[in-house]
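Form P-L/3: holo structure prediction, ligand 2-phosphoglycolic acid.
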Amino acid sequence: MKLVVANWKMNPRNEALALSLAKNVDSEGVIVCPPAIFLAAVAKKLKRASIGSQDVSAEEEGAFTGQVSAKQLKSVKAGYALIGHSERRRLGEGNDVIARKVAAAIDGGIIPILCIGESRDEHVTGRTKEIVERQLELGLSLVPRRVPATRIIVAYEPVWAISGGDPLVESDTPENAAAIIDYIRERLRHVPVRATVLYGGSVNVENAASFFAQKTIDGVLVGGASIRPEMKTIIKLAMEA
Ligand code: PGA
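OUTPUT (holo model):
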């Protein structure tokens, strides 16, 4: 069985649609990440799937307009938070604030899903490992040393493979994703965490099984396809894998 994270991004348009999407993905081994405004309603609806946020504040509470804290997420039963998604890095979120968000999530009892990945430019110039290593090292630099080790999820998402809703964008190959994920696992040996490592970027019903077939890939982070009917089949494939 593999893990599936559904990142709905800024979809759907209203709560009724969010609740019907939730019905479609309500299985064990699934983490649903709806927009913050629908978190509570979707959390109430889910019976088997877990719930995650698409972001979390680096701050605990106070004068931080528009932000949502780890404690607030916990209060609506969210157990996970995406952190450092490329669509947030693009808005200027750097590794320093990402590291603080990871620490704040852990402090507040939320399991971070740290997203890392290289841009197209970095990919074609052969800098993938260097970028991924840096994002990992800086992103996890404030993780507390604990026994037992803190649980985290890392999602390797090459930025050039993220569909942005465009079905013509192609995913990384499962072999290449597996090689980078092996590299990530090797780097994680120096960090006091128990990590689950996922692949993300244009995962769909056609290619999901080929990612699940890679032993080193613990699951997938699905964006565009997670709000389409095919998500049901992706989850079924993950359960059988
Ligand atoms: P995608 O998005 O599946 O649409 O490529 C993945 C993500 O951004 O998390």
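COMMENT: The two ends are 5 Å apart (CA to CA).
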